[in-house]
Amino acid sequence: MDGIFVAAPPGAAWQLSRDEFQAHLRQRFPQARCYEKQEPITRQDYLGFYVELDNTERHGSYFEHRNLVLEDALPGEWADTIAWFLGLLPADAPVVAVLESNPETMAPVPARADTQTIRDLLDALAED
């Protein structure tokens, strides 16, 4: 299963704090398990979380103002969550998607992309 990075492109940042993200996440997934952690190399604090998708616990991380990392599921299984996440950002917020297996290829994510558009984008990244 490929890790998915939904990120602000280099030189950009989002205005969504970790606390705001966590509050929205708990509204969407009331049983979410969240924890604060620090990335060992950059020493940046982030919010880690576990949510249930398709009756299986999945893991993700939110790095304040920078990126959302989604793991432990096929990319298409996260598509609806990515569409939801885009709705938390301003419509003009720049967003790119990158797969862990193909870190050299970044794809712009259209503002307010729907679930199918995101699935198609992730499939295209996986084919590169």
- The domain tally reads 1
Helical fraction equals 25-40%
The class by helix and strand makeup works out as alpha+beta
Average pLDDT works out at 93
Unreliable runs:
none
Q: How would a textbook summarize the main sheet?
A: 7 strands, antiparallel
Features:
single chain; 128 residues; alpha+beta; seven-stranded antiparallel beta sheet
Describe this structure as you would to a colleague.
By secondary structure, the chain is of the alpha+beta class. It has one domain. The protein contains 3 helices and 7 strands, in the order E-H-E-E-E-E-H-E-E-H. It has a 7-stranded antiparallel beta sheet with strand order 2-3-4-5-1-6-7, covered by helices on one side. Helix 2 crosses helix 3. The longest helix has 13 residues, at 115-127. The chain starts with a strand and ends with a helix.
Map the helices and strands.
Layout: E1 4-7, H1 18-28, E2 33-38, E3 45-53, E4 56-63, E5 67-71, H2 75-86, E6 96-99, E7 102-108, H3 115-127
Antiparallel strand pairs: 1-5, 1-6, 2-3, 3-4, 4-5, 6-7
Helix pairs in contact: 2-3
Short description:
By secondary structure, the chain is α+β, with helices and mostly antiparallel strands. 28% of the residues lie in helices and 34% in strands. It has one domain (4-127).
